[in-house]
Structure formats: C-alpha cells, structure tokens
Amino acid sequence: MRDYSVKLSIIKMLSDGEFVSGSDIGDSLGMSRAAVSKHVKSLNDWGLDIYSVQGKGYKLSEPFTMLDESELEKRVNVPVTLIPVIDSTNQYLLDRVEQLESGSVCLAEYQEKGRGRRGRDWISPFGSNLYMSMYWRLDAGMAAAMGLSLIVGVAIVEALEKLGAEGIKLKWPNDLYYNDKKLAGILVEMSGQAGGAAHLVIGMGLNISMPEGIEGITQPWVSLKEVCKTLPDRNILASELVNAWDKALEEYELYGMKGFVERWNRYDNFKERPARLIMGKREIEGIIKGIDEQGAVLIETENGVEAFIGGEISLRG
Length: 317
Ligand code: ATP
Ligand code: BTN
Fold this sequence. Notes:
The chain is of the alpha+beta class.
C-alpha cells in the first residue's frame, strides 16, 4: 500500500476550514513551500476543493470531520478497519474473507476505484461522503443474498431518521433516494461459497456533502446536507450505521425477510407510481406495488400484479 501520510497530514491541518499558510504546513512536515504546493495540487485530484489566497495560505472550501478508527471502535462491537485511501472498501473485504470475522467493517475517506452495480463507477471524493463495507457470512447460502440490499436499505433509512433525516426513500433493489435524486447506493458482492455458507460483502456509498461541481455522475444526485437541518458528526453517523446493519443482518439470519417487507414498502420511492423494469432488451411498464417476501419487486400491468427478481433488472421512474 502506498504511503499517503504527508497528504493526509496536510488534509488534517486544513480540515477545520481555516486558512493555514504554506510555510506553517512546510515547517510542521519538514518540507519546502514548493513541495507543499505540489501536494496540495494533487489533493484536488482526490476531489478536495482546496484554494489559496496570497498572504493567507490554503483553505478547504468545506470543513469536515475526518473519520477516526478509535472513535469508531468505541461505538461499535465489530472489528473496524479505516483505510483513508483505498481502491474499494468492498474489494478490501472480498480479498480477505478467509481471515475475517463476520461483521467486520472497512471504511475509507477516498476510493480510487469505487464501484456500483455491474461495474459502474462510484464517484468517491475525499472526506465528503461515507464509503463503508461489511463482511457477512450468511449460513443460509447464496439464495438468501438477494434480500441483503433490501434489508440494509431499510436499516440505513431508519438509522438516518433517528439522526433527524426525513423524507428518504428506497428504490428497488439497492438505492436510497431523496426528492427523486440518488442519495446512496448499496452493492452486495459475493466471494464464493464454503460448506453452504456464502461470503458476502455489503458496501454503501452515502453522499453527505459532495462538492457541487463533481464530474462523472450520470444521474440526478443529492447529499445528506440537503436532507438534514444539522448534519450528524461523521464518526457518529458511521457507527450508527454499522450498528444498524449488524442488527438488521442478525434479524435477517433468524427470521428472513418477514420483518422487513412492510418496513421497506413504507419507504418505497415508487409505490403506486408508474415505472419501467428493464431486463436486457425486455421492458415492462406498470404501476409499482412494493416488494414481496422473496424481495421481488411487484409491478401491476394489464396481466395483473407480477413479481420480478434478479441482479440484472433496473427500475426507472
Ligand atoms: P440500477 O442499478 O437500477 O441500474 P443505477 O443507475 O443507480 O440503477 P447503479 O449501478 O446502482 O445504477 O449505480 C451506479 C450509478 O450511480 C452510476 O452509473 C452513476 O451514474 C451513479 N453514481 C456514481 N457515483 C455516485 C454518487 N456518489 N452519488 C450518486 N450517484 C452516483
Ligand atoms: C450502486 O448504487 O450501484 C452501489 C454503489 C455502492 C458504492 C459503495 S462505496 C463503498 C463500497 N465500495 C465500493 O467500491 N462500492 C461500495
């Protein structure tokens, strides 16, 4: 893994949103102002918006609280690894399922290769969002995996509501929406099967305060700062989500989808609205009727209410 300690120290010095001069940064890190300037330039590639004013120094356009592994560890009961700069938190856990305890979590501040469903990019600028994954060993095997993005979605909305958010909705099978814009995405991936149990990694990218000018997102999106009057502290938010996932996954292992169907349907962004299901070349139009106990999406067409399930289906409003 590459050593990013200098860049991370600079970010830490700037994270409270105050001006810090190039020479102060240089002095504390034992380097020239020119070297500081070079590092700051490359931080913009990580999606940080740092500008400079002559005579004052550098400033982050939006302050933020950095994630802190020891703060997280105090608040959760599962093993936590924080790797500030990573390719993908899902990949990190997938590569280590043999060594990990079920429930282990990986978080990052920046993902170089964050991904969504079907290999799409997940845009992951430094510090402005949450990128979090959990490894779960599902003894019920692969067949039960389809429900995971649904129950984790419910757990996230409920946890965000407890922290003061209102109006967040779910889009089948893996998205959180607010005002018809994407707030978060969930990605469930598998790493083989051993003796019937499935090794699953559940990842979430949740936008908290994403810079407006960010490039590369091909659909309307929104950040939590537009949902909550006061944004929760990032370490508290991450810990609450870890605890909510852990609880939901345990409940799912014991009782299956039963306890989640009604909860999911309460938050359905498309309930009773017209939508299309896209399955390769096939498209079905109808009125969305929520989900069933298998985790399938229900759509009413002229043939009546039909259930659809599978990883290759996209729903469009
Ligand atoms: P579906 O899975 O139903 O086809 P989708 O279009 O949301 O829905 P996903 O694979 O779930 O597709 O999500 C990946 C998409 O999310 C990318 O194509 C990109 O447009 C968008 N995206 C990437 N990063 C972000 C982000 N940080 N916030 C919101 N949307 C993002
Ligand atoms: C989607 O909407 O398609 C799902 C997006 C999932 C993004 C998260 S960010 C943390 C984890 N690591 C990844 O590479 N992807 C997931």
